[in-house]
Model the fold of this input.
Amino acid sequence: MATALPTHGARARRAGSPLFDLLAFRRDPLEFLTRIAREHGDVVHFRMGPQHVLLLNHPDLIRDALVTRGDHFHKGRALQRSKRLLGEGLLTSEGEYHRRQRRLAQPAFHRKRVESYGAVMVEYAARNGARWHDGETLDIAHEMMRLTLSIVGKTLFDSDVESEADEIGGALTEMLELFQMLLLPYSEYLEKLPLPANRRFTRSRAKLDAVIYRIINERRASGADRGDLLSMLLLAQDEEGATGGMSDEQLRDEALTIFLAGHETTANALAWTWYLLAQNPEAETKLHAELDAVLEGDRLPTVEDLPRLRYTEMVFAESMRLYPPAWVVGRLAVKDYAVGDSVAEAGTLVLLSQYVMHRDPRFFPDPLRFDPERWTPEAKEARPQYAYFPFGGGARRCIGEGFAWMEGTLLVAAIARRWRMRLAPVHPVVPHPRMTLRPKHGLRMIMEERGRGKG
Done:
């Protein structure tokens, strides 16, 4: 499958033998994809066992796959297999069904609606920070998971799950780890065996289902319209399709998808942000200076402050560049896909890696350096759009992108006004690419109170 690219001067290359590539990818996918992209160019063809794979590593090619010719693809194997967990939610569904579900959910993510969630986000951040103590060591990755899960429960489902956050988060964590087994060759057969991992997966899913169905049943019984996502889904009628509202099973799939996607990705982005700020005191000083100037009188941030929290947002953006929560997008070609003067046949898996693209020195000079100044309006304008795509793109662009940007910026501001963090000595920091990019061993950090925002 040699591929000439008239605009980029690259040819698709084989990265190695099918078995070697499969083992190398499973051992360290971040290193493997980064290495073959740097060695072989913008289009790399390799095989993982019997599966033909094409890695695209240029903004023009990424835009083409996600936007221009997005109809050539369905979700890749990872998300197809994740239906065992998420059912037919927005993350996994396809075609007209996906378009219908997105229409029903979209109003909950309109700008004015999202802005109304801001006060809850800040309140929960302040409440969370009030539990911390100067000098104590915390796993800040766990703390961010707990915080964002509570926020999603309250803002989108008007349900207080704060007391259950650890249990829900633990079940999600276990399922995401066990999810890797579902990606193994012949996993369709392995999952039917009475293996301990299968039993743990089933137990964890049952825990999550119990929480979700309880919320749905309580809302149905009350009949109340609280203006949140769940109310919109319960009351929505799909006028275009004239097919009525959602069943409880459909509601479960969408609610669980939002619970996972709505807290997991933002929590990871925040955890990496605290790590990067601790490693880059100059950027941390600039952040604190902005917060001290904008939040005079040690007050909490509000949605109205967002236009003046420019550096805070730039810090969050740069964190997602270096450690994108969604580190790779997989698309399965459902029809032949022409790249340059060659064709990837239907059935080829196309990979677009945020982790690789965001660290490409052609678009981000000195790419390993943490530099929030990359996100000034002038710097952004000078780069191709899809050099940076933490939320994907095209028809399947993350529905909660606006929610995530606002939440990330407000939570960084609300926490950093009062706290700075230092990495605990001898703590290993290792990116752990699973469904999202978590820190493998958590992030144990020493809390330091700044003396501001104690009230």
In short: Residues 1-10, 237-241 have pLDDT under 50 and may be disordered. Residues 170 and 204 are 8 Å apart (CA to CA).
